[in-house]
Amino acid sequence: MAGRPVDHDRRAELLEEVVDYTVEHGFSDLTWRPVAAALGVSTNTLVHRFGSKEQLLVAILGRLRERILEATGELLGEQHDLATAARVAWTRTSAPERAPEFKLFFAVYGRALQAPGQFAGFLDRVVADWMARLCEAQGPDTDPATAHRRATLVIATIRGLLLDLLATGDRDRVQDAAESFLAALESPPG
Smallest Cα–Cα separation from 158: which of 118, 138, 130? Predict the structure, then answer.
């Protein structure tokens, strides 16, 4: 006898709630019972919707990546200037209200690096999504190799600055460094 089919709308709603829970509580000790209790559902409901704990983590990673991309992706795609796109990305990602989400992002990123087979989808997309948008922001006339090199520099620098900000809380120092980086992007090369 086959089990009940998964209601994908309800699964999506629960996933949003699970991601919110994980942003608030972290994922290192993520277990079915506390999550189920916080969401007001049974552990069986979560298992039915997500399968194993590993499948739940993969779903959380995917949705977290999507949320981060949604928060900046549309604006990045509208820019045809790398400096403006980088400033938009920095402003959105470094906003104080985004800190819990990005703390989880970096924790998840570390976990994915430790288990690349389990989190291959996350690792494949975590750079590629941003790379595509930042290359697009440079316009169609930019040499593809140059566009990729510049986009890589922006991704690495913004993530490094954001990690520093989250680790130290020294907003003034990190913002000063970010402004220096962003100003260099605005200056013509040479």
Answer: 130
Which stretches of 26-119 are DSSP H helices? Answer: 32-39, 43-50, 53-78, 82-93, 99-114
Please count the other Cβ atoms lying within 10 Å of the Cβ belonging to residue 149: 12
Rounded Cα distance between 92 and 54, Å, is 30
* 190: Cβ contacts below 8 Å, ≥ 6 apart: none
- Residue 27's SS3 state is coil
Which amino acid is residue 11, in one-letter code?
A: R
Domain boundaries, the chain: 8-186
Give the pair of three-digit tokens for residue 92. 């959105």
25 CB-contact burial (10 Å; exposed 0-12 / middle 13-18 / buried 19+): middle
CATH architecture of 8-186: Orthogonal Bundle (1.10)
Cα–Cα–Cα angle for 20, 24, 25, rounded to 5 degrees: 115
Q: What is the pLDDT of residues 46-56, one digit of tens each?
A: 999 998 888 88
Neighbour-count burial for 68-92, b at 16+ CB within 10 Å, e otherwise: bbeebbebbeebeebbbbbbbbbee
First to last CA, the chain: 70
pLDDT in tens, 140-160: 899 999 999 999 999 999 999
Q: What does pTM read for this prediction?
A: 0.79
Query: In the chain, how many H helices and how many E strands?
Result: 9, 0
